[in-house]
Write a structure and sequence with these properties.
The protein contains 10 helices and 14 strands. The protein is an alpha/beta fold and 364 residues long. The two termini are 27 Å apart. The structure holds 2-Phenylacrylic acid.
């Protein structure tokens, strides 16, 4: 579309979004028994349905994929049924919603896996913490995945993508960012494999590309996106200096798959945008479809980057927590509310569905 208004519609391969503002995926640790999305999730997401696109909190593709307590899954009939309530509520308000699918890999804890080690490309522990047993703990020592286990991981993503469609989602975002399994495979500092999944730029990208290809084949490339965070230290990621080449290759391959979008965390996730030098424009140039920009955006920066043609859509994370009506506030200039950090992770409705919309008069 040639329209470059942040508040105007945007068409991703036939899926029309009401505007170019995206709700970024946000982990809130409120899943219930059986890791079904919380009973409040339908209300929470539908309150935010005026976003052009909602991307859900990261959602496990399997039991092995879990790394934090009370994060939801999409691999059981109960989880599919509970997510259906969420997608119905969002669609009833005219919104669009993709589910973000993840496998955490080494960012996990033995207590979430009956005492067994989390899995990773290589047996290298991440320097990071997870939320487990109602507190923060160092992540556990992982074990390296056997080559024979890798097709099973691809299959878990494929099945979860099929489940996403059964649950009424408009599409799927593959979580390839923030130090989780697919990101771990991309980095020399986490992946020292000597098989087809390590040792070169092409080999390190293989799992992400295989997963994305399987998802795209299952649900249609036009319904699949991928999130990347080339230079973020999130999840204990350690940079090697070859990120520009590694991610350039990844994006070229994703372009070849014809997927709907890449969603790029620019800089350190939730931190400085200039955490490390990186040419994001070079990624945008290599990808013909939609580029979603994320991290540290405010309204002015989004408007200027849009007018410069640097991105198509802009994902806002923490602003959407305390401002369910973020799009209206941006349009009308109503000041943004600040979130309460104490209610970010875990708990119930408080700090989740009780942030009010600002009352904006019809002619504002
Ligand atoms: C914050 C807390 C736990 C998980 C990510 C899924 O960084 C997350 C996450 C964020 O992508």
């Amino acid at each position: 579309m040639t329209d470059t208004d942040l508040f105007g519609p945007y068409d991703i391969d036939g899926l029309v979004l009401a505007n170019r503002i995206v709700m970024a995926p946000l982990t809130r640790n409120r899943a219930g028994a059986g890791l079904v999305p919380s009973p409040f999730a339908a209300e929470y997401y539908s309150q935010r349905a005026s976003a052009g696109l909602i991307i859900t909190e990261a959602t496990q593709v399997s039991r092995q994929a879990q790394g934090y307590q009370d994060t939801p899954g999409l691999y059981t009939p109960e989880q599919i049924a509970a997510w259906r309530k969420v997608t119905d509520a969002v669609h009833a308000k005219g919104g669009r919603i993709f589910v973000q699918l993840w496998h955490v890999g080494r960012v996990s804890h033995v207590d979430l896996h009956d005492g067994e080690a989390p899995v990773a490309p290589s047996a290298i522990r991440a320097e990071t913490k997870t939320f487990v047993n109602n507190g923060f703990a160092d992540v556990s020592e992982p074990r390296a995945l056997e080559a024979e286990e890798i097709p099973g991981i691809v299959e878990d993503f494929r099945k979860a993508a099929a489940n996403a469609i059964a649950a009424g989602f408009d599409g799927v975002e593959v979580h390839g960012a923030n130090g989780y399994l697919l990101d771990q495979f991309l980095r020399e500092t986490a992946n020292v494999r000597t098989d087809a999944y390590g040792g070169s730029i092409e080999n390190r990208a293989r799992l992400l590309i295989e997963v994305t290809a399987a998802v795209a084949k299952e649900i249609g490339a036009e319904r699949a996106g991928v999130r990347l965070s080339p230079v973020s230290p999130a999840g204990g990621s350690v940079l090697s200096g070859n990120e520009q080449a590694q991610y350039g290759y990844v994006v070229e391959k994703l372009d070849g798959l014809g997927i709907a979008y890449i969603h790029v965390v620019e800089g350190a996730t939730g931190g400085p945008r200039d955490a490390a030098p990186f040419d994001y424009d070079a990624l945008r140039q290599r990808f013909r479809n939609t580029y979603i920009a994320n991290n540290g955006y405010e309204l002015d920066l989004a408007k200027s980057r849009l007018s410069e043609g640097k991105a198509d859509l802009f994902a806002f994370g923490h602003h959407f927590i305390a401002n369910p009506d973020l799009v209206d506030r941006f349009k009308s200039g109503v000041p943004l509310a600040q979130l309460n950090p104490a209610t970010l992770y875990g708990g119930g409705a408080q700090g989740y569905t009780d942030y009010p919309a600002a009352i904006v008069s019809a002619d504002a």
